Amino acid sequence: MITSTLRRVLLVAKHASFQSRCCVASSRVQYSTVYDSNEKTFDKILIANRGEIACRVMKTCKKMGIKTVAVHSDVDASAVHVKMADEAVCVGPAPTNKSYLNMDAIMDAIRKTGSQAVHPGYGFLSENKEFAKRLVSRAGIYNCWEHTHTHTSLCISPSVSLINRLRNPLKLILLRVLPGSYCYPVMIKASAGGGGKGMRIAWNDDETREGFRLSSQEAASSFGDDRLLIEKFVDNPRHIEIQVLADKHGNALWLNERECSIQRRNQKVVEEAPSTFLDPETRRAMGEQAVQLAKAVHYSSAGTVEFLVDSNKNFYFLEMNTRLQVEHPITECITGLDLVQQMIRVAKGFPLLHKQEDIPINGWAIESRVYAEDPYKSFGLPSIGRLSQYQEPINLPKVRVDSGIQEGSDISIYYDPMISKLVTYGATRAEALQRMEAALDNYVIRGVTHNIPLLREIITHPRFISGDITTNFLPEEYPEGFKGHQLTSEGRRELVSTAAALYVSAQLRSQRFLGNLRVSTTPQEQRQWELCVELEKGSHTVAVSRSGSTFTVEVDGVTVEVSGEWNLASALLPVTINRTPRVLQCLSRDAGGDITLQYLGTQFKVRVLSQLVSTLSAHMPEKVPEDTSSILRSPMPGSVVAVSVKPGDVVAEGQEICVIEAMKMQNSLIAAKAAKVKSVHCKAGETVGEGDLLVQLE
């Protein structure tokens, strides 16, 4: 029987039945699970997804001796998941509604390849009722998605009358009768998916109307279903979820919790297991109620029950995700279970092999979602490009990287910008955090902008280290937006000294050919230098001396000792600064002394000049910055969904000018000031690049 905590929650129909999912696999982790070659499940599984999650599924399938079929769009023909699969079928052009959401093409691929089962991953068709029905009705396909008796989502309650009005495909006209602040704030969200897509918070009627418009468009683009849910929004909570696992024989387990409170735009950024906040009693209560829910709806497979938890450890049921979660690897790390294998076994009809008392919490695991995003723009707007250099830090101990890309892969405007899921494990939380810090420093990503600066700042933030976090962590700690790592006086000296040592190393190398001096008559090699180093509009006069591979640098009257191998061809620059080991990356370096270094996760532009050149450069004219108040440029690459103005229109400050869709997220661009529209340089349906001029104001 459902307890009183769950009775406080309002049931809202989600327009589809719960589905069992056969599931995904992990790499570079040792499981306590044994892969029994004599236990026959399926001969062939089609993965109706792409990228990282498709690769994840294939890895477990291979361990279980199951052949795999990949589906792909035409632009994904050379993608990693296509190369990993035993077979691959093109299901259409790049737009998701013509490929990965194209049910007819995917059903045809199932028929052609003779696949016995289908795994949908997450996103796309993973929670699409119609797709599940078509699989069930098709003869010859083993049903990995078994219907439960109901499909409901529990939501923190707005009024019953409001929910009833919004239960059908939503009509904005009905919102006119909402009684002002009666139910606000509310969360508007896509009924067919997650990952922050199609999700908005509304604090009044106007924001609700705007949220419905953008959320329904995002939901249709991401999941092929524009239906929405609305629920009461709880301000300042923790987001903690329980992993459940159930079979078709009435057995169900809870596999501990995951803390997912670090979010931006309602999408998780950093997750960990277990949570620093839960005590054993609260953990058990949440786990038991999650299992009760799974049993109440006759659920079978792996699923996630999500809760909001307040400061008093009261927990409120949010929803159940009937699929594998992005962050499932951290549960695998602390339990030793391969969730993909468990889901495939359950889909075939095998009973669970474990009892609740068998489920441990061994150590601590942390996951950072690495995205091709610019963290300096709203904590992450999409970036596109080709990975010109890519090196995962898998040489480090207890580091796992789940990815679906490789060096040379393209990050396009059509799909989610995730590069990988970076997971570290340790016996304690401090150990896991230390390994994450090292992994982020050693992660080489060139060709696209990425969010490693933000990830590293989060995991080293004193508030995060103490466990004092909520879903409002990012806006509270960075109210003016993320600005990157803020240098202390010691950090500034470290960076200036390393840049000076790197500059001198490059100068010395340029004087040599095959290890010998280029000109035999050159006087004895120089060992002392006077340089000027410019950093963040500040200038430092430094004195550098060298002894072997060690440089002694005097900065602002303080002596800093920097030593290292100084391999200028390596992507990584491991150095020791005053006996403290650091790993930097030299992202660029030119003959003019301009150096871009990645230090503590953040990129810093440094200019190193000789004293003479520094004196002469002071006479060079500076470029006047562009006046951006009268122009609107695209902050990201994407496609224009709508243009709301035309030449001659008068717009108010904050008024919507146009909507840009990038990687399944829609972004409303507004006027920076009240003015008349002078010219419009884009139209709906066009593709634009980052920095392209969209609208000009007078």
From TrEMBL:
CDD domains found in the cross-reference section: biotinyl_domain
Main location: mitochondrion
Subcellular localization: Mitochondrion matrix
Residues annotated as domain Lipoyl-binding: 619-698
Keywords of the record: ATP-binding, Biotin, Ligase, Lipid degradation, Lipid metabolism, Magnesium, Manganese, Metal-binding, Mitochondrion, Nucleotide-binding, Transit peptide
Biological process annotations from GO: lipid catabolic process
Residues of the ATP-grasp domain: 146-348
Cited Gene3D superfamilies: 2.40.50.100, 3.30.700.30, 3.40.50.20, ATP-grasp fold, A domain (3.30.1490.20), ATP-grasp fold, B domain (3.30.470.20)
Source organism, top-level taxon: Eukaryota
Domain Biotin carboxylation intervals: 41-479
Cofactor annotation: biotin
Enzyme class: ligase
Pfam family, one: Biotin_lipoyl
Catalyzed reactions per annotation: butanoyl-CoA + hydrogencarbonate + ATP = (2S)-ethylmalonyl-CoA + ADP + phosphate + H(+); propanoyl-CoA + hydrogencarbonate + ATP = (S)-methylmalonyl-CoA + ADP + phosphate + H(+)
Name of the featured protein: Propionyl-CoA carboxylase alpha chain, mitochondrial
Lineage, opening ranks: Eukaryota, Metazoa, Chordata, Craniata, Vertebrata
